[in-house]
């Protein structure tokens, strides 16, 4: 027999999102520089632009004021920012929950900063050494750099036809290197990803197989999967992304630009977000 609780109407997520005066989380691309040249990177051509420290400080102030809960610091490769230490000083003074998104190559150089400034770190590893190094590079350097990281570590894996059959090996690597969780993404047909889409992208059959496999493997470690077949996309509603020059986008993959946080009123920017599509912008 249904309980009183189960009979209550489930809140409409869309209506709740419209009540928000800010996203729950914001990604900040502090630089578009990168030391890697990954075959499927959504940034087709890496630039040479760092977000100015004074601009970053202003962005953080705005996000705190409007009620953003968490931020993720990304790139490019964020550790390539010329004044990464100054960026960290600002983060440390803020009250925002902060994640670092890195390819892991320079983690050893910045271990102390990472441990004292960030709440968690996402490190990109795309499979066993031979597979990872074909898609990215630096497997052994990354693994060595992980040893002294004391904060929560999440392995970020971009799934493709090249590595989707190595999920058990990926879990083994995560366990051997004390990762707390694994976050699985799929290749997006954006930037360089569009150029390798036909050869590396997963099809519907692949995704079904992977989802079944994940269900079994979740018993070994926490796994989250950014399922591209999901009907909902939170970009522009619960999530936003900011480029080094202050340009605001729904997410890193989206071609849409909302405006510029350094030059426009927050309320104006936020109102523009209300009409974004609810399906993944990368596949539009």
From TrEMBL:
PROSITE patterns: MOAA_NIFB_PQQE (PS01305), RADICAL_SAM (PS51918). Its cofactor is [4Fe-4S] cluster. It comes from the Bacteria. Keywords: 4Fe-4S, Iron, Iron-sulfur, Metal-binding, Oxidoreductase, S-adenosyl-L-methionine. The keyword 4Fe-4S applies. Coiled coil: none annotated. One of its GO terms (molecular function) is 4 iron, 4 sulfur cluster binding. Residues 20-227 form the Radical SAM core domain. InterPro entries: 4Fe4S-binding_SPASM_dom, Aldolase_TIM, MoaA_NifB_PqqE_Fe-S-bd_CS, Radical_SAM_PqqE_MftC-like, rSAM, rSAM_sf. SUPFAM superfamilies: Radical SAM enzymes (SSF102114). This is Radical SAM core domain-containing protein.
């Amino acid at each position: 027999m249904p309980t009183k609780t189960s009979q209550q109407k489930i809140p409409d997520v869309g209506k709740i999102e419209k009540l928000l005066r800010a996203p729950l989380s914001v990604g900040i691309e502090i630089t578009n520089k990168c030391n890697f040249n990954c075959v499927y990177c959504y940034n087709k051509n890496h630039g040479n632009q760092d977000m100015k420290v004074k601009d970053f400080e202003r962005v953080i102030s705005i996000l705190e004021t409007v009620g953003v809960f968490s931020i993720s610091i990304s790139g490019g490769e964020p550790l390539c920012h010329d004044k990464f230490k100054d960026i960290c000083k600002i983060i440390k003074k803020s009250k925002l929950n902060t994640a670092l998104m890195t390819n892991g190559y320079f983690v050893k150089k910045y271990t102390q900063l990472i441990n004292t400034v960030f709440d968690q770190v996402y490190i990109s590893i795309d499979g066993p050494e031979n597979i990872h190094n074909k898609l990215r590079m630096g497997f052994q350097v990354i693994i060595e750099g992980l040893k002294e990281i004391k904060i929560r570590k999440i392995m970020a894996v971009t799934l493709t036809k090249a590595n989707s059959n190595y999920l058990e090996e990926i879990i083994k690597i995560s366990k051997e290197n004390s990762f707390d969780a694994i976050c699985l993404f799929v290749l997006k047909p954006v930037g360089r990803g569009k150029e390798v889409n036909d050869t590396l992208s997963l099809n519907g059959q692949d995704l079904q197989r992977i989802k079944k496999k994940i269900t079994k493997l979740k018993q070994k470690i926490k796994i989250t999967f950014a399922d591209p077949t999901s009907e909902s996309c939170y970009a522009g509603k619960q999530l936003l992304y900011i480029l080094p020059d202050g340009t605001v986008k729904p997410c890193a993959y989206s071609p849409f630009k909302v405006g510029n946080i350094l030059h426009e009123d927050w309320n104006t920017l936020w109102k523009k977000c209300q009409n974004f599509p609810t399906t993944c912008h990368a596949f539009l």
